[in-house]
């Protein structure tokens, strides 16, 4: 596959597993076309142990890093964690620059980010950081030098940016749906590799990761005339908004 | 081109020239891929003579039919006029059925329609007729027999439906943009074939058809990172909403 | 149960089965409290035979009337059909009056109606008819005499009006959710009595009535912290909007 | 006052008294500047006798015509009634033309109309009729001949159109507020001339015309930093939307 | 009253008196049912001396603390002040944790918070802090230890969260209204105990606390068919959104 | 011109040139009436050198300060720069106070600010700072002392606040339009004085400052029935929302 339609996609997630729930089917589809995939997690997810409330935070972070890395490896994606503190994410210059550096290094054509209207503050803040980082990544005059690395050249233009669905489909008016009926089995299989989150979510609600994926995917499929789908929304702000070369289908 | 991505598109317009202003660039693009194109006009446009206010209505209708047919011929599209009275369009069973019959006969995969929030009532009513006709076209139990013709078989599923932009971009939040930079010159050339409307619009405002196309196209291009674009919005209602097979680009 | 919290509820549906899909769980719950229930269907549903496209329309209407009546009987509700033509519903004075007469006769405290933004025109028109009928039902100066019956006294005040969810949850921002986890089994059992629609829907899509109920109920449940829920929206227009006597829970 | 800023304003109301409740303060203000005022009522209001439910409809219509005429006379406005049936208003070609004829005859610069999202169907339909009539009034090729009168010349351009507030401020996001603190006393005095409606409204709710005016005016004043105000919304659709010559204050 | 319908409600306010203006009638109603009430104020309100601009800030804070405490005592609620600086509120980890600790200690079932679209930044920030704190309060793995106190156990599930109305009803689309006609006299009596704010507001506008309560309550009542009402909006985000056990009335 | 309708307007911009693109035509119009004009820029714009990416940041800031000052001088406005870092603007107490001090010193009647939904974070943050500063400027109890200056007296009431358009017209629903056809030539002439930005923008897109002004102005003109217009939106929040003394025209 020497020429994928979209060369490089970076998916930004607040915690390890958000991408798995909300847009993994689409990433699997893009991978089949040859798109380069990067998943970048903004926080360390160290509060994600609802079923084992007494686990030390650093152990939780380490466990989730291993799980997310395994999924990324199985998907054929690079996984990066920016290490901010779970549940207390703030929009800092350092995180904006770190994320813009990821976009530059990956030569991102497309950024997938959480919705600015999502279910907890880490999500909305991660969305805002991605929003500004997409802009910064294409400013040649902005010299971003990651620690111990030379400056990364700016992107020729800002990546197209899309918001993936919210959990569980609340306060989200999709711009479009992608059919993932053919990717659903694999999506659930990969999501199940988040062993800790399967248990943690179940302990805090009546559903686990894979059940949430099933219900949301089925609902978005019902809405859009197929078995399973994922929903997305344009970030309709210059310069992240890009006209498409084809009428979509 | 034996296998276009989208086999058949029907563009619905309230008056002869609306498609030219608002989505002709996209139709030109689809034509290049081999898509079958149909333009169906709901009214006869017989009030479209602002510059010659005393022209008898039937003459205006005839003149505009000739102009719209010429554009369609140059584009390689079929042109159909349903003949309702200009400025006094109402949603009738006959028009719903007539439009559903067009969708069936054209085996439409995609319907492009005016926005339900457009600048005059013929537009909003044409939008509503198209909305219900898209649904009716796929009901096998609904037997539509155009005058003097056998019953048309129902579509296997309702066509995907999208709204094209409003004139001039008011009360319209696009779901996506299509780059028509490569089609703009031809779009304007074809639009200019509406000689009567070039003069009529100019007499009622400070712009003519081609100037409106230029400003709106440039604005949508500026918004979406290209020279010229056209904007569309999902009709986000079952069963006209369809998941796409590809992530768009 | 001499004093139910809500004495009488009328649920308006465009076709026989809409109430079953979208608010039957809530009706079951109200029934348990002793609320008087009326289901009024606006069209005869005579196009609902997707799986048997050649069935004569009157046979379809008769079959669906039997099915809807059976469900209503099992629920303990009155069922009324206003007999308008399926797929071609228009807002007429006769239908407004007929519906207002139903509200008056049932002494409705609450009206449940389809959303004005639903998936086909019969739904949106039924919503508009119910909107005006709710107002008319409480005008003492409006003398409504159903055929062959004396005039019905006006309601002391317009019923509170709520929109039930859309199929399948599109273009609908809920004002609130009702937990129907305890009613779900019975809801599906009753819906299954629409034998014709179970088959008709399946033939036109990949789901049947009960699957749609399952997915939508599960999704609304996931959103609102329970197993299964139904979603509603205020009709926020005077005089259908009523302050509640209690903070809800 | 030879040169008022706005030469002629036409206020459209569904029933006799809507203008009094919702924009009379602004009309009083414009009158002081020398603006020509026309109030056109679309229905005959013959159902407006909540306190005397047995009054024959024609008597109600006649009584309300007298009341509305008196208010208009006191204001220095022309009053016209188009005579459609109260509670059963539909959008017909005849009413569109009749209203467009009023706009032409009054040489309207500005049209004030009910919101398309108002509390009963007569209001929303009157809003739609005014919407299309504003467009028709400026089409020179549309020849409108009122019964027994010569054709009226088209307006040079469509009047600017604004929606006045809803009763009671529901589903209405104002574009701007006009300070009517200095007009409030006179507004209430004139409204009180609707003797029948003072009694009719009181009999159907806990407020009468003047109380509603007081509460709504006070609320809009509180919102906009003054004692009493009226709220308006742009009709943001071509060609009814007009840039202003001055930044407002 | 051993079993109130709602066991514990926490109302969050940016400044001492916001709860009094915007939801005190509902709190009075809940109190009658036996609900445990807590009012938590985020800032110290030390800029609230418009009528005495030279008063030292600490004196203002002390005075307002006394006033708010008196109201709470009269209502039978606990009053807590988190002590952030008035007019300069920011979303910090400390405030999130402090507020989550209040929710945990009060075993909150329901949180009432300012709208995220309110009239000054302290309100929108307080809304955001409450939003995240509601989530944090139910994470067992999050160990919150208030100064000099043992860790508080997490709530079994996040409290249901609702936004109360804005001052003065701007940019707020209510999800529902609560009838407070029976509580209005007492609400105004309690509000009047904010002697300093009665004078401060009057000095900065043409209304005082009690006048604002009167106008807003009357307007919300007019909208919802009663004398006086308060308006609320769902926080429609997981896990703060809860299905109700009853259809509301 | 001893008595302009609006005595003093302050236009807030995130970077030097935003006012020029988005509301300079209106400022030119107000200047003709005798309004006192102040332009206050929040950041130093030191990243605005897309065409010369290696220019040291302080040089860029100095160059842009000169350009913006020249435009302001030619316009007859005061220019102030608050000096925050370009691309990394945050909402701090110092910036709130500095901006409120500008409003106080200019005795602002009207504040024009960027939209809270604009294309990059500096814009949305500048909008939020202006939002709170407008409120702070009218609190007599808030004692703002700019460095080395005595305390500035509070404004008698908060300035009216309006958002100017976004670049390029995205996510912005105008409340009103101002006709700038007569000001367009001068607007473009002044904008061209931003020599560095003419080149920098062109290097990052296919348009420069003046082309963007042309397209946006023409589009807003087409929408509002004139050649060129600028669009504004109310900040519909107390106390920045003010009723107007006149119906606008």
Automatic annotation (TrEMBL), chains A, B, C, D, E, F:
It comes from Verminephrobacter eiseniae (strain EF01-2). PANTHER family: N-ACETYL-ALPHA-D-GLUCOSAMINYL L-MALATE DEACETYLASE 1 (PTHR12993:SF30), N-ACETYLGLUCOSAMINYL-PHOSPHATIDYLINOSITOL DE-N-ACETYLASE-RELATED (PTHR12993). It holds the Pfam family PIG-L. This is LmbE family protein. GO terms for molecular function: hydrolase activity, acting on carbon-nitrogen (but not peptide) bonds, in linear amides.
């Amino acid at each position: 596959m020497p020429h994928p339609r979209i060369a490089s996609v970076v998916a930004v997630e607040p915690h390890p597993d958000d991408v798995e729930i909300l847009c993994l089917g689409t990433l699997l589809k893009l991978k089949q076309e040859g798109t380069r995939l990067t998943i970048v997690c903004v926080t360390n997810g160290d509060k994600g142990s609802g079923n084992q409330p007494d686990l030390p935070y650093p152990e939780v972070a380490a466990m989730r890093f291993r799980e997310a890395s395994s999924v990324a490896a199985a998907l054929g994606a690079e996984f990066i964690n920016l290490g901010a503190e779970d549940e207390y994410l703030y929009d800092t210059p350092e995180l904006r620059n770190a994320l813009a550096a990821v976009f530059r290094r990956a030569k991102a054509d497309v950024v997938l980010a959480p919705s600015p209207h999502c279910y907890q503050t880490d999500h909305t803040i991660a969305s805002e950081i991605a929003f500004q980082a997409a802009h910064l990544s294409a400013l040649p005059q902005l010299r971003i030098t990651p620690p111990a690395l030379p400056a990364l050249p700016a992107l020729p233009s800002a990546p197209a940016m899309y918001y993936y669905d919210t959990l569980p489909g609340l306060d989200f008016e999709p711009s479009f749906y992608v059919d993932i009926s053919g990717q659903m089995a694999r999506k659930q299989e990969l999501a199940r590799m988040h062993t800790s989150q399967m248990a943690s979510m179940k302990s805090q609600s009546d559903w686990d990761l894979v059940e949430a994926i099933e219900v949301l995917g089925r609902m978005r499929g019902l809405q859009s005339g197929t078995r399973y789908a994922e929903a997305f929304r344009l970030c309709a702000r210059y310069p992240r908004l890009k006209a498409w070369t084809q009428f979509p289908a």
